[in-house]
Amino acid sequence: MDSSLQTFSSVQEESSQLSDDRSDGYDIDLQYDKQDQVSGEGSIMGAFIGDAAGAHVEYLYKVTDNLLEESMNLVGGGAHNLAPGQITEDSEMALSIFQSLLKSQGFLDLDELASHNLDWIKTNPFDLGFTTKTALTPLLCNARGIFEQVKKLNSCSQSNGCLKRITPFAVWGSQLSNDDLYKAVYLQTYMTHCHQIAIDSTYIYCYTIKLILNGNLDRKSIFDLAREEALNRNWFQICEWLDEALNFNLPCTTKNEGWLKIAFIHAFHYLISGSSYQQAIRQMIRKGGDTDTNAAIVGGLVGAFYEVQELDQSMVNKVMNLRFLEEMPNESYPYKRKQGVKRPDFMVAGLVFTQTNLYKFFRHIPTELKVIFLGKIYQNEQIDELIKKYPLSNSESS
């Protein structure tokens, strides 16, 4: 290990003074100037609402008008018989990302992120993709173990979960330089994915949210800047996908349902076409396929244009007010569930996104990337050296 790397003991001491914040459930009306923080809650909530809406018709090839209206009312049900307003597995991972960033106070603490992800998978999630399961069942249960597992076994994956869970991270990284944001996205995404397309598309998605949160509300300008960023980095596949989004050349949603290309192209299509949040997720869900994930990814991008108060409040309230009773049984079989899938408090959006936690989260939005890995702090060129240890895959298989 480079002797110039700092230890993390002082940061750990400060972080330990924070409450765990996973299940406090309190809601204090803190008085603070919202103009001093990045406005990004609409992106996060936009993704969560899209997820809860799309879950009702997940993997259906045909979504009728009645099913679509039920979905938009967040009635729950679906393949997993969820509760009204209940989110699915990758949005739960977004909660893990949020809580790890909250506890890390401005650092990208890969140790903390790994710990939260491993805690999540121990809760027996009701839906779990192959890529995520492979990544989070390493022989060595820490950040290095996960990275090595991903590098060895997930080199071909272009699954869509890396985009679905990213909105809290996109908001957190919105004040970083573009290069720092790319490095941060690279390392966070490597917790499950190491294919170049997965990393590149997730970065462009986060970069676009960054543009919006920093005041660029002209959709054509945003789209052009996103394509220019991809072109400058010689990411020609991403440029082709953006061209398809612009030219209404949209991929079928019911073939290769879990491919991230589908949601990526649709998200940028709804951005450049000027669709409202409601229009975008409604049209995305109507197409069928992996509706929860696709609507979440579309909702996270288009939702970045909105404050939470500007979203449909009945939808926001269903997601935020969902609670599970202590005596509620945790049924393994969907057909036996009457009130959704019982989940621990740290996987319940309304108990995680408290005013207190949001205040702390936005208070520590970083302007410079500092990474913690195996208890050491990495900065500047040290981060580059860390990234070199975990190269990207360019396998053609998806």
TrEMBL record:
Annotated Pfam families: ADP_ribosyl_GH
Keyword Metal-binding (UniProt): yes
A single GO molecular function term of this UniProt record: metal ion binding
Binding site for Mg(2+): 88, 90, 290, 292-293
Polar residues compositional bias, start-end: 1-18
Disordered, as annotated region: 1-26
Keywords, comma-separated and alphabetical: Magnesium, Metal-binding
Co-factor remark: Binds 2 magnesium ions per subunit.
Full protein name: ADP-ribosylglycohydrolase
Organism: Stylonychia lemnae (Ciliate)
Name of the coding gene: Contig14502.g15450
